[in-house]
Specification:
The structure holds two protein chains of two kinds. Chain A is an all-alpha fold. Chain A folds into two domains: 53 residues; 215 residues, MetI-like fold. Chain A has 14 helices and two strands; from the N terminus they run E-E-H-H-H-H-H-H-H-H-H-H-H-H-H-H. In chain A, strands 1-2 form a two-stranded antiparallel ribbon. The two termini of chain A are 32 Å apart. By secondary structure, chain B is mostly helical. Chain B is 73% helix and 0% strand. The chains are: A mainly alpha, B mainly alpha. At the A-B interface, helix 1, helix 4, helix 5, helix 6 and helix 7 of A face helix 1, helix 2, helix 4, helix 5 and helix 6 of B.
């Protein structure tokens, strides 16, 4: 907050070789407090993440004595243990499958529907969109019970499909919402021009509009990736078989199997977080846009 | 290809057929979404409503329609009321604290001081982490024997508070909530940072020329301009606070002594662990209705004010 130099004509003192008016002193004081607050919160948000990382890389015996101690020697044995003995090789592979299929499915189906809702005209369009919006507001817990029995009756409960198909279905409301907004932002004249050049609706979608909606696709892909990677309630209900578990419920399993191996659990947590964390650090802007847009959906 | 070009030479007589074709194309674009969302979103939701009116146990093929019996039972279930009161606590603290801290941090970063990218990157980081990991990190911090929090509390002389918070019925809910808030503040901060971009600085200057001090200018000029942002965050907190499940399930499973039992965890226990499908479905409907009605009513109220 800016302060006004109305007190600048006050008495001046010299300190550190600089002349300090009262105004100047006050400005430095506010700036100092401001940075102090910012740094305190920086530590507050970062320290727990640092603890996990360091505990995952320190020798198990060290961590057992003091999980929050500073790292003296670093090694990868905890990570290897979680990876091999803790079956994280399997969990990570499963999660990669879930993410690849769910993200692809949501991207394709959402952009088709988003284009249809934004650029084409047919009866019932607004109604369909309203129903989609409803899907954004309904919490997952209100459908999880029937979803379990649905998966059972479709005989997909013990397969990858139990995560993939509902994952796509539940990702669609936001995907359609976002892609519709993107396609609405593109000028209608483009479609008309393409039609004069001999394109049909599919051509307009595939050759003209989709390439222009690229930023929206990236945002949606990242948002969906993070959701699928972090998904917890969905696999908790629909993936009871250990060999099909994704990392989130896999980590829970690991925790109950190796209760006393603190360093190992920290390593498991690190493996679970690293892909999303890395992606976040690389594509930060798109990541933030996706999550905030995802929340602003209401 | 030729189809589009031909449209221009069509006589008005064939107009309905042309419409029909356009409609069909529109529906074709929507078909995959309608099928997938219909089966895995809409159908379970409607089915949930239907099951909430039955006494199905999830095993037997037959079940009976029992009307609103499950709902009546829920109203008399003290665990439901207890759970809902925990949800109310969750919503209130989980809204006020992140908004206060998030707004503070966003205002401090408003004029983009040096290091802003670093600050905002780190602040948002917990939001990205999987909830199991957040739950695990805070489980360590709260741990009764080696946890960071008991140690710090001992060091500053608060020995009575220096115990395992997750195991103490009077502290467990607060402990889980604090972990959730830790992860949520970064999001609120970023949303407020975006909201502050839209604040009219000239209005702020005018207020100062008129003699308002920094606090008055902030409270009377900046905050009203952020009202849409605040409305949205509160509405989201209402929905999120009444349906919260993951982090509580991982950290405490509703315990100790039901002190962290929320409506969503209770729904999970009844509907999926104890196979009381009808009752569980009714509970999930109650949760959904409260969350949605609360959020919509709040948004409407704010709209009418402005």
């Amino acid at each position: 907050m800016a302060t006004y130099p109305k007190v600048a004509r006050q008495t001046q003192t010299r300190l550190f070789g600089v002349t300090w008016s009262r105004y100047r002193a006050r400005r430095w004081l506010t700036r100092g407090i401001k940075y102090l607050v910012l740094i305190v919160f920086l530590v507050y948000f970062f320290l727990p993440i640092f603890w996990i990382t360091s505990a995952a890389l320190r020798p198990g015996q060290d961590v057992l004595q003091d999980p929050f101690g500073l790292p003296r020697t670093l090694q990868l044995s905890n990570l290897l243990k979680a990876w091999n003995t803790g079956r994280f090789n399997r969990y990570v592979w499963n999660t990669v499958i879930y993410c690849a299929t769910t993200v692809t499915g949501v991207l394709i189906i959402s952009s088709l529907a988003g284009f249809g809702l934004a650029q084409l005209q047919f009866p019932g369009r607004d109604f369909i969109f309203t129903v989609t919006l409803l899907g954004l507001m309904v919490p997952f817990q209100s459908i999880m019970i029937p979803l379990y029995y649905l998966a059972r009756d479709l005989h997909i409960l013990g397969t990858y499909w139990a995560m993939i198909l509902p994952g796509i279905g539940l990702g669609l409301p936001f995907g359609v919402f976002l892609m519709r907004a993107f396609f609405r932002g593109l000028p209608h004249e483009l479609a008309d021009a393409a039609k004069i050049d001999g394109c049909n609706e599919w051509g307009v979608f595939w050759r003209v509009m989709l390439p222009l909606a690229y930023p929206g696709l990236i945002t949606l892909a990242i948002f969906q990736f993070r959701n699928t990677w972090n998904a917890f309630a969905l696999p908790l209900v629909l993936v009871p078989r250990d060999v099909l578990r994704p990392v989130a419920t896999g980590m829970l399993q690991f925790q109950s199997r190796f209760t006393s191996d603190r360093a190992g659990i920290a390593a498991a947590a690190l493996i679970t977080s690293i892909p999303v964390l890395l992606l976040y650090l690389i594509l930060q802007r798109q990541f933030v846009r996706g999550i905030t847009a995802g929340a602003l959906k209401g | 290809m030729a189809v589009g070009a031909r449209q221009f030479t069509r006589s008005p007589r064939t107009l309905p057929r042309k419409h029909l074709r356009r409609w069909v194309v529109g529906y074709l674009f929507l078909l995959p979404a309608m099928v997938m969302y219909g089966i895995f979103g809409l159908y379970p939701f409607l089915r949930s409503i239907q099951l909430s009116l039955t006494n199905w146990d999830g095993v037997q093929p037959k079940y009976k329609f029992v009307g609103l019996e499950n709902y009546a039972r829920a109203l008399q279930d003290s665990q439901v009321w207890q759970g809902l009161s925990h949800n109310v606590t969750w919503v209130i603290i989980g809204t006020v604290v992140p908004i206060t801290i998030g707004l503070l941090l966003a205002v401090l970063l408003w004029d983009r001081p040096r290091g802003t990218p670093l600050f905002s990157t780190i602040y948002f980081m917990p939001q990205v982490l999987p909830l199991v990991v957040i739950a695990f990190i805070w489980g360590w911090i709260y741990h009764p024997t080696f946890g960071m929090l008991p140690r710090v509390l001992h060091a500053i002389g608060l020995h009575s508070l220096a115990r395992g918070w997750l195991g103490a019925p009077n502290l467990a809910l607060l402990a889980v909530l604090l972990a959730a808030i830790w992860a949520h503040i970064g999001f609120v901060t970023v949303v407020f940072m975006a909201g502050l971009q839209g604040v009219d600085l000239e209005l702020l200057d005018a207020a100062k020329i008129d003699g308002a001090n920094a606090w008055q200018a902030f409270w009377n000029v900046t905050i009203p301009q952020l009202s849409n942002t605040i409305t949205m965050i509160v509405a989201l907190s209402l929905i999120g606070g009444f349906s919260v499940f993951d982090i509580v399930w991982v950290m405490t499973q509703g315990g100790p002594a039901n002190s962290t039992e929320l409506i969503a965890t209770y729904t999970f226990v009844k509907g999926l662990s104890e196979n009381l499908v009808g009752y569980g479905a009714a509970l999930s409907m109650i949760m959904t209705i409260i969350a949605l009605v609360g959020a919509v009513a709040f948004i409407r109220l704010r709209e009418r004010e402005s």
